[in-house]
Write a structure and sequence with these properties.
Order of helices and strands: EHEHEEHHHHHHH
Low-confidence stretches: none
Distance between the termini: 20 Å
Strand order of the largest sheet: 2-1-3-4
Radius of gyration: 17 Å
Structural class: alpha+beta
Number of strands: 4
Shape: globular
Mean pLDDT: 94
Helix content: 55-70%
Length: 221
């Protein structure tokens, strides 16, 4: 049985839970990080010296870093379901997974910290404006790609869609102006039809205000 340490409203934890749900792998989850704490305790730091979630343990394997965990799970369990077997599909899945982490992740994180987790008087409005413009550029790139493909790896759903989906779902919950992206919207609609996505990601409300976020964290952890 796999153990996952992390709170359910962490986007990085959601990636791992979503992958486990897609793979139909049994797991248990322990609250850690955020309002729950514990991620700076010696036992946790022995698993992840960065003190961040998620962390998983599967037998004698203990891992941190969400993208690495998702890739490892996809290779270990039901190979070919989330990790494409054809070289071109795998290349595209790896490409878009890294693109999302390197580009979309930091911009969405900036918006999250300022618009959700910080009270208005403590927000960095210049950072919000820059992240809003950056995400506008990024979602247009993603929209152009997905206009020509069913999924980000091409014909089949893959771990790339998990990383992209968790981040873009969070992005669509922010109270900011967003560009028109009909193809990306259609892709997000398709994700919402997947039970694993609904259980791992959509089950946690996308709160817009700090008080709601803290309350939701404790109620849905």
């Amino acid at each position: 049985m796999i153990t996952v340490w992390g709170r359910r409203n962490s986007v990085n934890v959601q990636k791992v839970l979503w992958a486990l749900e897609e793979l139909d792998v049994p797991y248990t989850r322990e609250n850690a990080g955020g309002s729950f704490g514990g991620n700076k305790d010696a036992d946790f730091l022995a698993m992840n010296p960065m003190g961040l979630v998620p962390v998983i343990r599967d037998g004698d394997v203990t891992m941190f870093e969400s993208n690495a965990i998702v890739r490892w799970l996809a290779a270990r369990y039901r190979d070919g379901l989330l990790r494409p077997k054809d070289p071109k599909g795998l290349a595209m899945a790896e490409q878009w997974m890294e693109w999302a982490q390197v580009n979309v992740g930091p911009a969405v994180g900036t918006l999250q910290m300022n618009l959700v987790r910080s009270p208005p008087e403590k927000r960095d409005h210049a950072a919000v404006a820059a992240a809003t413009e950056r995400t506008r550029e990024l979602v247009n790139i993603a929209d152009q790609w997905i206009a020509r493909h069913d999924w980000f790896a091409g014909r089949d759903f893959s771990f790339a869609d998990i990383v992209m989906g968790a981040l873009f779902w969070r992005y669509t919950g922010f109270d900011i102006a967003r560009p028109v992206t009909p193809h990306l919207d259609e892709w997000l609609d398709a994700l919402q039809l997947r039970d694993p996505f609904r259980r791992a990601v959509m089950a946690v409300p996308r709160a817009k205000y700090l008080a709601d976020w803290n309350r939701i964290e404790m109620e849905t952890g």
